[in-house]
Task: inverse folding
């Protein structure tokens, strides 16, 4: 790995440590019972979920040029990513994880597949693959949150609708689906995506002032989320059953990049630069959006925080393994 990636990883840990120190000192206040009310970690998470992430998603989807997208490369990445995500979700539901909370299967699924494509992914792509590789990486990133968060939001809202129906007595399938559709569309992740896609489809350009506002809000996502990870560690602590995070971490660092390599290279015939970029994108550590998702549904916050930190530490060792595998493949 290049020094630039090492420095980026170090910078991430420093910002997380700052967030942990602020949380440890309780400079922003104490956590309240049940994690509600004025809980500082929840307040920051809500700010990210309702203000900064929607601005980033709307601007991204409104500006995507779908006519020039490399669809084969995108298929090579998203087929294994979405496939593994649905598999983890289904396995968790089959094991009865939903009994611990309707959102548990979805939170486990996002932890296993959502990568840190910005803080770690951008410098990795630029440092290892150069400008051409970075262009491919950014193209995939433009659809990354759109595909994963939209699908998982629909799944978790369906599970929540089933849970509400069970608590309120028998409801028809139509009522459950209507509730799911309403809560999925009127959602701080999905709604800006749909609005951005509609804006894009109409061929409209973002006014300069609006574009500047959205860009300013979007740039706050990275530092806010990193600080939030540290604060979450301070407020929630390391999970008691810390071994439970090893499965999602192993899936993210080892299983997902292996699936991307298998499907993209031997299934779709990709090779060279596009293959290298998407394999390393699959190998990235767990992204901070997984924690935002977990806190949105008040589910597995400490486990998700631990998975982000642990996977980022272990990435320093797994990344050279995947870079070596790619070198052997093309050697």
Result:
């Amino acid at each position: 790995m290049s020094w630039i990636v090492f420095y980026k990883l170090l910078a991430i840990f420093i910002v997380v440590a700052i967030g942990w120190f602020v949380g440890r000192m309780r400079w922003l206040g104490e956590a309240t019972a049940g994690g509600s009310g004025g809980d500082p970690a929840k307040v920051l998470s809500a700010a990210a979920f309702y203000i900064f992430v929607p601005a980033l998603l709307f601007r991204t989807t409104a500006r995507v040029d779908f006519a020039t997208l490399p669809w084969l490369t995108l298929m090579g990445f998203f087929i294994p990513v979405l496939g593994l995500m649905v598999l983890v979700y289904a396995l968790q539901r089959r094991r009865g994880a939903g009994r611990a909370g309707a959102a548990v299967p979805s939170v486990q699924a996002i932890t296993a597949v959502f990568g840190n494509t910005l803080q770690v992914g951008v410098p990795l792509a630029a440092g290892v693959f150069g400008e051409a590789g970075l262009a491919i990486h950014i193209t995939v990133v433009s659809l990354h949150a759109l595909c994963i968060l939209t699908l998982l939001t629909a799944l978790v809202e369906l599970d929540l609708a089933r849970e509400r129906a069970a608590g309120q007595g028998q409801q028809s399938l139509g009522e459950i689906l209507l509730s799911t559709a309403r809560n999925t569309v009127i959602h701080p992740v999905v709604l800006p995506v749909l609005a951005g896609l509609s804006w894009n489809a109409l061929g409209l350009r973002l006014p300069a002032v609006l574009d500047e506002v959205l860009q300013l809000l979007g740039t706050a996502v990275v530092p806010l989320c990193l600080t939030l990870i540290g604060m979450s560690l301070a407020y929630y602590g390391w999970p008691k059953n810390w071994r439970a995070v090893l499965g999602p971490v192993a899936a993210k660092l080892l299983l997902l990049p292996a699936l991307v390599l298998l499907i993209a290279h031997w299934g779709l015939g990709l090779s060279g630069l596009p293959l290298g970029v998407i394999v390393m994108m699959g190998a990235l550590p767990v992204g901070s959006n997984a924690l935002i998702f977990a806190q949105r549904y008040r589910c597995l916050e400490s486990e998700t925080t631990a998975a982000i930190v642990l996977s980022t530490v272990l990435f320093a060792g797994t990344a050279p393994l995947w870079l070596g595998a790619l070198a052997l493949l093309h050697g």
